[in-house]
Write a structure and sequence with these properties.
This protein has 19 helices and no strands. The chain has 474 residues and is mainly α.
Length: 474
């Protein structure tokens, strides 16, 4: 290791891995929600869910996705005390299904989170250029902004985790605050035709493919497992991780559902699909246009800027998650030993952080040299890979929970709901979600059928490669 791990850090007691932290429930919830990039989801995923899905019934898709993840969280949280190490889905799969499946799960996680991070860099580069030009500035190549932000992320990721949590907390409060202001204004003014619950009626819900709304809602939850990734840096992980998990799912789910409902009301139940499709065609911007109408130009302009902080918070959060995955795998002999080093002063996995920065920069460069469109070619395609990986990760984890408690019933006596019923329901819910994602995959990637099939196979290939690779030697 790069430091004497018997020495106390200035920011908290040192875990067996050498990482330190005093992250409470709130700090971890901030980082999970930041990874979800709520303002980005409302501005991007909601128009997709409304325009290509059931129109006014789209809020139900977000509610159903939230319910699936909440049921998943029951088994995930119940098993948490019996998984005494970081690594999240990797650690749970290893504990319940064995080392080989665990390594396969780790491969999926690294692919999924690297893909979504680089995808968001593409979205961020596009958004910076769009924002600068909207204020009369020059055109800025997307990759230039992405590389500049990657440098700032590298600086924060190299330092102690508490610094990143503070930065993410500020960015998150601002972006949620401005969206809550828009929601409140819509409900206060009664939307286009008065506040109603038409979105939650069978007529609206089944007026189009509800599965499309569920699909884009699930995409908005990517980063959910970060509650357990920060176990070694949590103040009291046995209490902090379960609380953070439930809070993250509930807050994200309610925020998405209510905000989607508010946008439908603002556009008008009968006109919501048309307004959303104008956004998809590039003839408007559902979120920004509604913000201008209901809260004014000044707040709309602020929202444009906060979209950039939302995207920045997202890439920073994913950077921290991937760095800690790599750090954990290095301790298991699955990555070069250097990746398991801890910085003497910052108590951070600094080598893993630097390696993640190099990986991101190289992939950004490849996308730029390939002249890929930052939204469709970079964000759309890589977010698609991440969505398949995310659902596959949760599905494997749910199976691991059931298997673990079947083999060890004495560890949770009398908890049939938590150890059997909820995880099995989660398996069926996630299988349905995976089918929805794969059957509508071209809508996620924005590419051809051939390209979409290739991208969809990548997470499964990573899982198989991990199974073949097998456990390392710590």
């Amino acid at each position: 290791m790069a430091s004497d791990l018997s020495r106390s850090g200035s920011t908290g007691s040192i875990s067996p891995t050498g990482l330190t932290g005093r992250l409470g429930t709130g700090s971890i919830v901030f980082m999970v929600i930041a990874a979800a990039a709520p303002l980005t989801v409302i501005g991007g995923n909601v128009p997709l869910a409304v325009g290509n899905g059931p129109g006014a019934g789209a809020p139900v898709g977000f509610a159903l996705a939230s319910l699936i993840l909440l049921v998943f969280a029951v088994g995930f949280v119940t098993m948490t005390p019996h998984v005494p190490e970081a690594g999240a889905f990797y650690a749970y799969a290893t504990r319940g299904l064995g080392d080989r499946v665990g390594v396969g799960t780790a491969g999926v996680a690294l692919v999924a989170y690297t893909a979504v991070q680089v995808g968001v860099y593409g979205y961020l580069g596009w958004a910076v250029d769009s924002t600068v030009r909207s204020f009369g500035g020059p055109h800025i190549p997307w990759w230039a902004s992405a590389l500049a932000v990657a440098g700032l992320v590298a600086f924060l990721g190299y330092r102690h985790i508490d610094l990143s949590s503070k930065v993410l907390g500020v960015a998150l409060v601002l972006e949620i605050g401005v969206m809550v202001a828009v929601d409140a204004a819509v409900f206060a003014r009664g939307g286009a035709h008065g506040v109603n619950v038409e979105s939650f009626t069978p007529h609206a819900v089944f007026s189009g493919p509800l599965g499309i709304a569920v699909l884009f809602a699930l995409t908005g939850f990517i980063g959910f497992e970060a509650t357990a990734v920060f176990r070694d840096e949590a103040r009291v992980p046995e209490r902090t991780i379960p609380r953070a998990t439930y809070l993250a799912v509930v807050i994200i789910g309610v925020f998405y559902t209510v905000s989607c409902w508010a946008l439908v009301l603002a556009a008008g139940v009968d006109d919501a699909t048309t307004v959303a499709r104008h956004t998809l065609d590039g003839d408007g911007n559902m979120l920004m246009d509604i913000a201008r109408t209901y809260v004014g130009t000044t707040l709309r302009d602020l929202m444009q800027l906060l979209l950039l902080t939302s995207l920045f918070a997202c890439v920073l959060s994913f950077h921290n998650v991937i760095a800690r995955y790599t750090f954990t795998l290095a301790g298991k002999g699955l990555m070069p030993a250097a990746a398991g080093r801890v910085h003497e002063r910052h108590r951070s996995p600094y080598v893993s952080s630097l390696a993640q920065t190099v990986t991101a920069v190289l992939l950004i460069a490849v996308c730029a040299l390939g002249q890929l469109d930052p939204l469709v070619g970079v964000f759309g395609s890589l977010a698609g890979v991440a969505t398949v990986g995310m659902v596959l990760l949760m599905l494997t984890t749910s199976v691991a929970v059931v298997t673990f408690f079947v083999r060890n019933p004495q560890l949770a006596p009398g908890k049939l709901w938590q150890t059997r019923i909820a995880p099995v329901l989660a398996v069926f819910g996630l299988l349905t979600g995976l089918w929805l994602v794969l059957s509508n995959f071209t809508l996620v990637t924005g590419g051809s059928t051939g390209i979409s099939v290739f991208l969809a196979v990548v997470p499964f290939a990573a899982f198989v490669a991990g199974l073949v690779r097998g456990p390392g030697k710590p």
